[in-house]
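Re: that chain you flagged

S.,

Sorry for the slow reply, it's been a week of failed gels. I finally had a moment to sit down with the sequence you sent. For the record, here it is as I used it:
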Amino acid sequence: MELDNFDRQLLNLVQEDADQTSERLAEQIHLSPSAIQRRLKRLRKEGVIARECAVLEPKKIGRPTFFIVSLQVERERPELLAELRRWLSREPHIQQAFYVTGEADFVLVVTVPDTDAYDELMSRLVRENSNLKRFTTSVALGVVKRGLTIPVPLED
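Prediction finished late last night. Pasting the structure tokens below so you have them in one place:
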């Protein structure tokens, strides 16, 4: 799908705040509100905008603990990796999972209420995924930046 500069501007703006009205977006991009609505509909239909979500303030919901986890698998057979990917995708406490190069095979961002909940999650992960070789954990002491924004460059 070809993106023009209006699409690119729109994508940058809705990533920052998807709750903006078409009128507010139109003021910033210099298009009509109806043109903004058509473009958003097309971007959603084409899968450029995969979904929209609310970003919660951790302190307001009980201050969950964040863990960064590196996983190593025993064997990289496609069917075993697919099984692990499905498991990771279904687990609601795993915020993000990346298949990576380097010493680890996967890097996870996990958020749970406390270390007991983390221990239970990781025990289940190991028990239900026999291909897991080892994992290492880093506890996030604080959040410096959190988001999913992907900067969309504007055309020159």
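What I noticed first: The chain has a mean pLDDT of 95.

Talk soon,
D.
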